[in-house]
Amino acid sequence: MKKNPGPSKGDAGTAAYIEQRLLCLDHARDLIASAERVLASDNAYPNIAYHLAILAMEEIGKAGMLCARGVTGGAWDTSWIDRRLDDHIWKLMWAIWSPSLSGGKIDPESFKEARQFAESTHDRRMAGLYVDYEHGAKAPPRRAVRVDHATSLMKLAKACLELEETTGAPTLGESVEELEWFLATASDEQGRKMLFSRPFIQKHEELGGNTRAWVHWAREEFGKVAEAEKEHLKRELSRQASKPGQGKPKWLMKVRVQTPSHSLRQKTLNFWNDRIEAVKMRTAGPKHQDLLLEMTIHDHIKLEQLFDVGLVMSKMHLVMLNIGTGGFFWYELSGQAEAYYESVQDLEAPNMQVFIGRLSGFSKEWAENRPDGSKRQRVALEEVHLNNAIRAMVAFGLMPDHEAEPIFGQYLLGLSLLSKTDLHVSLETQARDAFLASLRRGMHQFGDLESGDAELLPSLHRVFQTIIEEEAQRTLVFGQLETPGKASLGDAVAAKRAADLYFALVAQRRWPEFRGAIGGP
What we know:
Elements (H helix, E strand, L loop, with lengths): L15 H25 L5 H27 L6 H6 L3 H10 L12 H18 L19 H21 L9 H11 L1 H7 L2 H9 L4 H27 L11 E9 L4 E2 L2 H8 L5 E6 L5 E9 L4 H23 L42 E2 L5 E2 L2 E2 L2 H14 L4 H20 L7 H18 L10 H8 L7 H8 L10 H26 L7
Parallel strand pairs: 2-7
Antiparallel strand pairs: 1-4, 3-4, 5-6
Helix pairs in contact: 1-2, 1-6, 2-4, 2-5, 2-6, 4-5, 7-10, 11-13, 12-13, 12-18, 13-18, 14-15, 15-18
């Protein structure tokens, strides 16, 4: 279904956004009044009042966004505004930050601070609304918000509402070309960083806080930078690359990786960073749940080669990280693994919360049982995992392509298929087969399987007999590998784990050959 793009500038619909804006502000006023009543009750619920105040802030932010969309109309691509009209954090941030567009001093940290405020406020709102069963909540949601939190936020909502009403809607028909450019630039991550950098903010102060003059100047500066970048690109394309091993660091490529299996701590990641120079690992994201690979690439790689080299380099490290941890690390995960709907309501019991969905999602395959009987969704990443990954990288990273590709190409295929498996696409069988193909070819390459089509289970029992002495335990580990027919998600994960165990064992077996290459146990 195509979204309503909003009224276009200069047509009969130009007044529609004004009506929508007024409806948002009117609703914000109702929400603030409701929050005050909840808080004034003898049996007050600050968490509910806090939530209502945030909803008011979101409506105020939405009103400002509708203004921006209406003013720019069809003269500029406003799809980024439409996409963010349902973004809770962005609407909160816009309500706090957007008044600076109408004049006054722009603080270089204002945009960042508004974003941080929106994120922390939204997090507290969620803590006050839902029981966080995944992280073993110890207190009811009402304790997450104090009375002073709710009171403070209500005052802020009132102030924002008053300011928005005082500012009023921008005048239709006036020139908006530079406003269009400013909104589009502020919505782009790279453009936003430059626009709110220290030199640009200092220029705003030099102009006496004249925002219109500052936007005009900023647009010209962006044009100069664009021309300089074109010249730099020409020089780069004509640059003579150095010889491999004789050059210097040239590129820093950052690759974000997601994991449903492990929780990350920077202190643990530093174990890797202290030993590996070319690729550093950092936590990323608001809750530090993502992993950032910072890859340094030397100047023997030219610009036109950088994309492919970075892809190969990141994939190699992801394979070794997956093997070393026995978990799952990939560029991006499917967004609908457990549910496809926004909400379900029982019309006969409208106050009941209804959840229906897949009982075993992807992340649950790595859930860890706690001593108290609860489950932890992510296993903590430990130094031993990273040490295993380093050994795997050293043992397999220098293999000739004709030997490595048949083995680890299938492993990468399995990872890619698992990352795309969700409620809409079932690729578990293909993923399991890819991991088993990787395992078979690896066992044959390293002398543990007579041929690529030999029986797999007897060889696995023989290889792991010294590590897992009990046959029953080995059967428990490897029993799912050759189940005929369609595979389940658990079958695919079991095949990956078997491959991980084997490659980690081979890396340990080959480690004495490479012990002097990298410091470590």
